[in-house]
Amino acid sequence: MKQFWKILKRYVKPYRGYVGGSVIMNILSAVFNVVSFSLLIPILQILFNVGEQTYEFIPWHKGMDFNEITNNAYFFVSQWMGTMGANKVLLLLCLVFCFIVVIKTSCYFGAAAVMVPIRTGVVKDMRMQIYNKILALPIGFFSQERKGDIIARISGDVQEVETSITSTIEMLIKNPILIVIYMTVLFTMSWKLTVFTIVFAPIMIAIMSSIGRKLKARSIEAQQYWSDTMSQVEETLSGLRIIKAFLAEKKMNARFDNVTSKMRDKNSQVATRQAMAHPVSECLGSAMIAIVLWFGGTLILGDNKVIDAPSFIAYMAILYSVIQPIKDLSKAAYGIPKGLASMERIDVILGAENSIKDPKDPKELKEFKDCIHLDGVSFSYEDGREVLKNINLTIPKGKNIAIVGASGAGKSTLVDLIPRFYDSSEGTITLDGVNIKDFRTKDLRSLIGNVNQDPILFNDTIFNNIAFGVEGATMEQVIAAAKIANAHDFIMEKEEGYDTNIGDRGVKLSGGQRQRLSIARAILKNPPILILDEATASLDTESERMVQDALDYLMTNRTTISIAHRLSTIKKSDEIIVMDGGRIVESGTHDELIAKNGYYTKLYEMQAL
Fold it and tell me: Residue 575: enclosing H or E segment and its boundaries?
């Protein structure tokens, strides 16, 4: 339960005002409920002609208890019966009873309505917190986590927290209030009956709690299978073309059926235990009512009555009202473990450490003046696999540097260190002589533009994709960037022009069109440092020519770092860095490297063939 209270403290604190409103409305509803049941006593006395009891008026005074207030109320009822007659008083009492019930139910509704902003607000805050954390975490975190699993946590797990925990907040506010008020009234009506009742209530709660102890562990397993399901759906959507091409529909069906069957079995176990909550609590509650009826009946039928029959019926009505809050609290013993299981999975993301941290006193960075220098840089993943080894490299301002090598040589990892997508394990990277870790990542990345082999576009309009990351971009600026990127003509061929939605990841466009949009986006940002990661590798000859023309313009007067497999595209580079096995094995211009007749020459001749 300690973890549960921490969750409430973390997320419910901004909604304290609503909690206060709920407390007030629940107190009022409980008070009016007691008053409505108290009215049953004079009504029953009239109906069953129980008139032997007389009431003496007690002068009103401060601090009157419940019995004194009800005594005076019954005194006035007996006076009215003498003047108005029993029939009219009965009608009046029934009308007052209905009026009080309307107020009581209105308070019930108000208490529930006040809780709605808390439930919806907590879920919204939780999703925003997860999403913001996803944006803040380094790219390395997601290389170890499946996308489907993360999607499952922000959807299914948050939904489970809403169902199991935020709905429990209402129970924890309302039920203790109802129980305290009802039990206080019951004690004043008959302390003997109430003490007898209290003996059985803890037994009922203990039985209910024991049934729900294993729910948390089983719920964690069920949510894990949900993550596996979402991961397979995400993989299927991403690889649908390959699945169909290799006729692997049956294989994928079998995989999906396997994980969903396991999830069904685990959910069935959890649901079966949850289904036990109502019948078990109903059975225990009915047993308690029967026992109290027996004990109360012996008190009424005995020689020394401690309570009369009408009062006993009102007592039983209030007692039955106590049982429902107790049953609701027992249901919380089921809901809370399920919610805590989901919260543990959510906290894996929320509690993940962000290794890319800004300095406490960052140095100012507004422009790139001199060079980028890598001194003894090495990089290893968390599993210990070494990718880069002792890299020493200087990238002067305004130069076009190309990085080549076989797949897995560490080219992409090397350029990812410059904008701090990862941090080096050893060595330092400086920009104009200052360690890049001394700058804010926001300032550092504002100087860098990226164009990747697979253009990363969003399910939005062409205008918004080009203007992405540039606040307040105008249509004129976007059109100018598109023209430079050789994209304006094909955009204007679209029926809605720059307002055309390009679909998920730009699926409505060709590969060359998507790449030209990503180049237009980089042109609009106008960064002094440009990173090109295989920007033309996946294009046909005609698209490559148009994209290359746009890239040539983009690279003019900029510091450019190009990763290339196609060596013919980087012949004119100022310097070519050749990598193999995470090391720099050669460097120089194209002609210098060919003259060395080394590793670069071998790569070049293989491509020439």
Answer: strand 575-580
Residue 506 contacts residue 514 (beta carbons within 8 Å) = yes
What mean pLDDT value characterizes the chain? 79
pLDDT per position as a tens digit, 397-434: 988 899 998 888 888 889 989 988 888 889 999 999 99
Q: For residue 544, what pLDDT is reported?
A: 66
Query: From CA 560, how far away is CA 330, in angstroms rounded?
Result: 65
Question: What sign for the dihedral angle of Cα 551, 557, 562, 567?
Answer: positive
Kindly list the structural domains of the chain, giving each domain's residue range(s) and its CATH number in brackets, ordered by start.
Answer: 2-350 (1.20.1560.10), 371-608 (3.40.50.300)
For the chain, state the CA radius of gyration.
37
Instruction: Let me know how long the chain is.
Output: 609
- Which parts of 474-540 fold into alpha helices (H)? 475-484, 488-493, 511-525
Residue-wise over 556-591: b if at least 16 C-beta within 10 A, else e?
eebbbbbbbbebebbeebebbbbbbebebebbbebe
Q: How many C-beta atoms lie closer than 10 Å to residue 69's C-beta?
A: 14
| Cα 551 from Cα 597, distance rounded (Å) | 30
Q: How far apart are the C-alpha atoms of 106 and 194, rounded to whole Å?
A: 29
Contact 200, 319 (CB under 8 A): no
Q: Which residues pair with 587 in a beta bridge?
A: 577
Residue 539: pLDDT band with limits 50, 70, 90:
low
Q: Which two tokens stand for residue 421?
A: 């997508």
Residue 426 belongs to what H/E stretch? strand 426-431
Of residues 221, 246, 254, 252, the one with CA closest to residue 234:
252
Q: Which residue carries 């129970």 as its tokens?
A: 171
**Contact criterion met (CB below 8 Å) for 196 and 295:** yes
Give 501-511 pLDDT, tens digit per residue.
Answer: 988 878 888 88
Are 536 and 551 within 8 A, CB to CB? Answer: yes
Under a CB-based contact definition with an 8 Å cutoff, are residues 530 and 507 in contact?
A: no
Name the helix (H) or strand (E) containing 584: strand 583-588
Q: What are phi and psi of 577, to 5 degrees?
A: -100, 125
Phi, psi at 580, each rounded to 5°: -155, 125
Count of alpha carbons within 13 Å of 83, Cβ hemisphere only? 6
Alpha-carbon distance of 432 to 438, in angstroms, equals 12
Cα–Cα nearest to 25, from 90, 89, 116, 88: 116
C-alpha span between 178 and 29 (Å, rounded) = 9
Distance between CA atoms of residues 183 and 492, nearest Å: 75
Output the CA angle 420-530-506, nearest 5 degrees. Answer: 90
C-alpha angle 450/454/458, rounded to 5°? 80
Distance CA 121, CA 129 (A): 12
